[in-house]
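In this supplementary section we document a worked example of the pipeline. Step one takes a protein sequence of length 168 as its only input; no multiple sequence alignment statistics are reported here. Step two produces a three-dimensional model, which step three serialises into structure tokens for compact storage. The input and output of this example are shown verbatim.
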Amino acid sequence: MKNFQIGLLLFLAIISISSCEKDDICVEGDTPLLLIEFYDIEDTTTLKEVRTLRVVGVGQTETVSTFTDRSTVSSISIPLKTDDTSASFIFISESTDSDDGLETGNLDTINFSYSRIENFLSRGCGFVVNYDELAANTITDADNWIQDIEITQSLVTNSDSTHVKIFH
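The serialised model returned by step three reads:
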């Protein structure tokens, strides 16, 4: 009887050890962010900071969380939609709240369009979306602070290099 119990325990131990699988931890990558740099319209090779910049997705109530809200910056990274072929953002220069809590500042809307490339990395990572054929245009209003947009890389596969230059 004792040999049977030892054999049964040994059998169960072998079964449980052989059924373990490798942990699916994702270290390979993530969907890239769109890297935007701001340049001086007068000297197009010089970075120019945007004072108290706020970026909000059109139709969203929360600001983009990939950089500090209402900070003075010369470059930002923002996420594009992974389930659509376009994304629109409101870029607010000199952003503040008025006494009645409404947003003040100069608001410009930029529409980004692109095609999506889905890449399966692994079970742990799932799919990563890259973007191609990136294009951008601003909605013209009476007081645009954004004067021009240049796409420097229409294929977005990483967040390491500039994809868009905005001149103001």
